[in-house]
Amino acid sequence: MGCCSMWLYRMLCFLFAFLLFQVNSSSISLLSSRPPQSCPSEHSSALIQFKNSLSLVSDSEICRDSYPKTESWNQSIDCCSWEGVTCHSLTGRVIGLDLSCSLLEGNLPSNSSLFLLQDLQWLNLAHLNFIDSQIPSEFSKLRSLTHLNLSYTGFHGSIPSSLGNLTKITFLHLKSNNFEGQIPDVFGNFKKLIMLDFSFNNFHGLFPSSVFNLTGVTDMAFNNNHLGGPLPYNISGLSNLQRLFLSANLLDGRVPGWLFSLPVNLALLDLSSNNLSGNIESCMLSKLRNLQELDLSNNSLLSLSSCSNDVNSTFPKLNILCFSSCNIHQFPSFLRASETLSHLDLSNNKIQGSISKLEAEGLESLTYLDLSFNLLTNVDQFPGKTLQTIDLRSNSLQGPLPTPPHSIHHLLISENELTGEIPSGFCNITFPQVLDMSKNNLSGIIPRCLANYRFLSVLNLRMNNFDGKIPTMCTDEGSWLRSLNLNNNQLEGPIPRSLVNCSELEFLDLGNNNLNDSFPRWLGVLSSLQILVLRSNKFHGPVPNLRSTSFFTSLRVIDISQNEFNGHLPTKFFQNLKGMKDIHEQPAGPYYIGELYYKDSMILTIKGLERTFEKILDIFTTIDFSSNQFEGQVPEVVGELKDLLVLNFSHNSLTGQIPSSLGNLLALESLDLSSNKIEGRIPMQLTNLIFLAVLNLSQNNLVGPIPRGYQFNTFTNDSYIGNLQLCGFPLSKECGESEGTEAPPSIFDEDDDNGRALTWKFAMMGYGCGLVLGLSMGYIVFTAGKPAWLVKIIQRAPNQKVRRQIQKN
Ligand SMILES: *[C@@H]1O[C@H](CO)[C@@H](O)[C@H](O)[C@H]1NC(C)=O
Ligand SMILES: *[C@@H]1O[C@H](CO)[C@@H](O)[C@H](O)[C@H]1NC(C)=O
Ligand SMILES: *[C@@H]1O[C@H](CO)[C@@H](O)[C@H](O)[C@H]1NC(C)=O
Ligand SMILES: *[C@@H]1O[C@H](CO)[C@@H](O)[C@H](O)[C@H]1NC(C)=O
Ligand SMILES: *[C@@H]1O[C@H](CO)[C@@H](O)[C@H](O)[C@H]1NC(C)=O
Ligand SMILES: *[C@@H]1O[C@H](CO)[C@@H](O)[C@H](O)[C@H]1NC(C)=O
Ligand SMILES: *[C@@H]1O[C@H](CO)[C@@H](O)[C@H](O)[C@H]1NC(C)=O
Ligand SMILES: *[C@@H]1O[C@H](CO)[C@@H](O)[C@H](O)[C@H]1NC(C)=O
Ligand SMILES: *[C@@H]1O[C@H](CO)[C@@H](O)[C@H](O)[C@H]1NC(C)=O
Ligand SMILES: *[C@@H]1O[C@H](CO)[C@@H](O)[C@H](O)[C@H]1NC(C)=O
Ligand SMILES: *[C@@H]1O[C@H](CO)[C@@H](O)[C@H](O)[C@H]1NC(C)=O
Ligand SMILES: *[C@@H]1O[C@H](CO)[C@@H](O)[C@H](O)[C@H]1NC(C)=O
């Protein structure tokens, strides 16, 4: 389903259920006003047989209000009073059965006693789990059926054409099963059909053309299948259509003109994610006087333009218009006459040039405007006066930053070519929540007002030319600031101490500036702080050991590389980092930190390369203290940070030995201790690190044999160069007798690929597939160049969490 339809769609389902309920209850009230007839014994025994052919399950994930309706069925009581059963008021025969969400599962064989209930008019079996069942053609015996709901019933296989015998059907719901094959072209028989839902199945083949002959139908959903072919040029039906969902199919050809001249109240049209082509003209659109929601997104050949003889198009009810990822070249200024349009998504098109004052006028009700990923060069004025969200990321906007309307909540204007200072109008916004102006060429000082909007949650000015000091932050008590990104500017001076009052701060990136300060130990009280980046500044002095054990407890990413820090590595500091010791993954899997319209991003050096993390999983962990002047030993306690993925202490003056405790960092994927003065042997325990993809121990004073086994069989010379007294594979220098070689701990031949994969599999099972796969999967999301073996294992693993992860993207 496309970007906008969910809301109306739910309304539709509600309406459908409501109607069904109405029909049921009216017949119940009839029942109570006359002498009640009791249910025929062949009906009660058919019902009991049907109940007995199924079994109860304890839980259903999808239904919110599931309960076992059949539990209370008692054969010594008239079946007309059974839960879910409705009888005819005069004859007492069973005419309605609603067992939706009643926690049943089983088979539905063709001789099921259900098909003996031939008076059934309403049958709702939604969410009954008919595992391994095909839909029996015996449904066609239920000739009286007007309402049939088999949504979410787990049926698979094709739909028998005998279903076409249900000539009285008005409501037909077959949503979300595993149906496949062609949809039989039997709709010509369904003269009374009002609503049909075939969505979220695997139907293939051509779109059933007889659908277009239906005259009474108001709601039609075929979205999320594999239906192909063009839509017909000419149709004779659909004269009462109100909502049409055809998104996420393989439809091609032109959008037919009849869609815009239906004699009807079409309110919702979703044709998104197909391969439709053609041009939608303003005067066609304006014929749909009742249209509220239109989604034509993701049809790469479809364009939108105003009519050549531009009559004053009006769209009296249009509320949501989604036209993202199509082939639009101009801002549809004809929409300015619309007084009702609130949500306009034109992202990912080829819209060029500027939005002039004239074009931006009107659009009085617009609150959401997405023009991201286009080719705009100039915006004289933002459309609308009540705009709350504007997304202009990734255009070619030049010149000064335009002043947004006071009403703005979310301004996303990163990746443009804007210059000059932040205009004073930015101090006049009523309720800003997300301001992302990163990746431009803005300059001057950061206005103090920005830093002190109480409800501002995100301020991102990364990659600009701001200079001067960081302003005093969070002066208002109860500041909501969650994310502050000032990376890659020309900022100077100390970190303002007032940051300590930003109690919600999770993300702080001040890297790549000229800041000059000692280590901000006082930030340790910010109990939500997860990410702290100070890299490449002029920070100096030691990183102090903190007496309080409640400092920096949520920290997961700390990058203080390329500064002038000195002294010993802080043992107590590492001990405090609880966020790297016991990550408790959310039940729904890891999530990206950020909010609805904004995800935090950062640049780190991982595995020797600078990488941009456009999104950051809440389970990503790294410590980078490289390129400073730290001395002394690597503390043992670092080995307690068992969820650590990346550890970099390179380019310092560290001495002593590599602590064997590093072998406990079982999640570690990258270890860099290069360019120090570390001595002694490489501890055997490091071979435990089965996810280690990068090891750099070069330019130290290490001696003796290189351990063998697992990942150590994959590292090359580069990992060890500049240690003159190391020996053994992969170096050409062989170890002498006295040095001895340690045998690999693998029981498999190290050259046997299958054996290797098997060992890894064992290891992964050994400490929880979920977490390991979660981590590595997330990691792949933002890094390239994963070792092939890991990618293979992940692809092979049939793990739910991994799939959920992909869906979230
Ligand atoms: C059919 O079942 C689905 C899933 O529970 C529900 O959303 C829909 O409203 C039902 N339709 C009717 C007519 O009850
Ligand atoms: C069925 O109903 C009868 C009569 O009301 C009652 O005696 C009996 O206990 C009920 N049986 C069950 C299993 O509820
Ligand atoms: C349905 O047919 C199967 C054999 O195909 C049989 O075992 C079963 O008893 C029959 N069930 C009914 C309700 O007739
Ligand atoms: C249903 O329709 C088919 C034709 O599609 C017909 O051959 C069959 O006899 C009908 N079945 C019933 C049970 O009426
Ligand atoms: C649609 O209806 C017309 C007559 O109104 C008929 O000629 C045509 O065959 C029908 N098409 C389908 C596919 O049923
Ligand atoms: C479309 O159908 C109408 C009536 O069914 C007919 O008058 C018209 O000529 C048809 N148009 C085309 C292009 O076939
Ligand atoms: C766009 O449509 C293609 C198929 O035409 C589909 O694979 C893709 O997921 C869609 N993209 C979005 C963002 O819906
Ligand atoms: C979409 O249609 C065009 C021709 O209209 C065709 O070249 C292209 O392959 C189609 N794309 C898909 C994904 O089917
Ligand atoms: C369009 O609107 C303008 C101003 O509202 C009006 O002067 C003009 O006559 C309209 N044009 C048409 C073709 O209706
Ligand atoms: C700020 O808004 C007020 C009215 O809300 C207006 O008078 C003033 O000119 C605005 N200031 C700037 C700099 O836009
Ligand atoms: C950014 O603006 C400065 C002047 O403020 C200019 O010298 C520089 O070339 C600009 N950089 C880019 C990448 O446009
Ligand atoms: C933090 O806020 C408190 C109360 O609003 C204030 O007294 C204190 O001076 C602030 N701290 C800094 C460093 O600004």
From TrEMBL:
Signal peptide start-end: 1-25
PROSITE patterns, alphabetized: LRR
Transmembrane segments: 762-782
Primary localization: membrane
Keywords from the UniProt entry: Cell membrane, Glycoprotein, Leucine-rich repeat, Membrane, Receptor, Repeat, Signal, Transmembrane, Transmembrane helix
Compartments, record wording: Cell membrane
Record has Transport as a keyword: no
Membrane topology (UniProt): Single-pass type I membrane protein
GO cellular component, one term: plasma membrane
Record-given protein name: Receptor like protein 53, putative
Similarity remark: Belongs to the RLP family.
Organism: Theobroma cacao
Domain Leucine-rich repeat-containing N-terminal plant-type: 45-87
Superkingdom of the source species: Eukaryota
Gene3D superfamilies named among the record's database cross-references: Ribonuclease Inhibitor (3.80.10.10)
